[in-house]
Design a protein that fits this description.
It is built from nine helices and no strands. Helices cover 66% and strands 0% of the residues. By secondary structure, it is an all-alpha fold. The N terminus and C terminus are likely disordered. The protein is elongated. The longest helix has 27 residues.
Length: 170
Amino acid sequence: MTSKASQAARPDHWPPRTTGPEAEARAAALRAANINPRTGLATDYLNHFNEAIMLLEMIPDMPECAEDFLSWCPLSYCEHFMASHFRARELAIEAYETADETVRTEFDNITSTMTSILTAVGAAMREVSQDRSRARLAEQATGWVKPLVALAGGIINGGVEADVETIMAS
């Protein structure tokens, strides 16, 4: 069984490509900026979530890292690029805004889910004082968010590996 997210991001669901020198130049510019020309999305945004995961993974061994995780702030795709030093940030934002609506919606739903999980875990960590409880929350959150990062990466890269059931089963 294939999920809606993987179906929406598969290449056979894409609108027809425009051709010609302008389209080829745009695709080349997107590739040069590490933006997928088919999806209009850049994997650089996933670094935002990978940072939170890295901090969560450190908490069981270094409880003081909880404070670093608690200072992590959620950012939307556009907010991330506006605040980054990504060399083609304006192009990344423009490509995202003009990306296929179905693909962008699936991507946004996944990143919103990751943000909700990380925000809820942060709120729960603020409520507990025991390192063991914070470590358990961190481990659970990592287990939930990592597969979603992989799913989001699949969508960014054209959806070939964006099969929810396969990712969530691992």
